[in-house]
Amino acid sequence: MRCPGCGGADTRVLDSRLGDGGECVRRRRSCRECDMRFTTFEHVARSLPRVVKANGGREKFSEEKLRLGMLRALEKRPIESEAVEGALARILRRFTLGEREVAARDIGEAVMEELSALDEVAYVRFASVYRKFQDIDAFRSEVEKLEGEKGKTRRPRKARLAMFRGR
Ligand SMILES: [Zn+2]
Fold it and tell me: Most exposed residue of 41, 48, 97, 135, measured as fewest CB within 10 angstroms of its CB?
């Protein structure tokens, strides 16, 4: 592990212990060249599902995006990094098992659940931003739907089609 201070490759582990409920390993390290001390967190490598957005679009599950979203909500709050990493690990573990695709909404709900247990302020911050995005996503997909219909001749409604078939 390179030193984040000087980039030197010669760092040593001072202390190694399990983080938040055994979800991660936390290591205190020290650089032999510049003496800087830093911490690393070790997690199990996972294969994560694809994320299905509200408008139906798919994207890669981004652990980094998830972490940034949580850290943004937790900015300046008195919560230890270790607790945040533990929450993040629980969310990741939840989505690692089984499903090949997962709704963005479910990830958002899981984050809100963890944040509400960690810190009320962070929870409210995240929820307000997240809900706004959900609305924007829903709005965008409505617009796309309308744009898709533009120029086409009007098709009969599904209900009418059903009547046609005698159902
Ligand atoms: Zn260094």
Answer: 97
Q: How far is the CA of 46 from the centre of ligand 1 (A)?
A: 30
Spatial CB neighbours of 38, under 8 Å, sequence gap ≥ 6:
3, 4, 5, 28, 29, 31
Query: Strand (E) positions, the chain?
Result: 11-19, 24-31, 37-42, 50-52, 58-59, 101-103
How many whole angstroms from 38 Cα to the centroid of ligand 1?
10
DSSP output for 39-64:
EEEE-----PPEEEPTTS-EE---HH
40 CA to centre of ligand 1 in angstroms: 14
pTM for the complete prediction? Answer: 0.60
Note the Cα 123 to chain centre separation in Å: 14
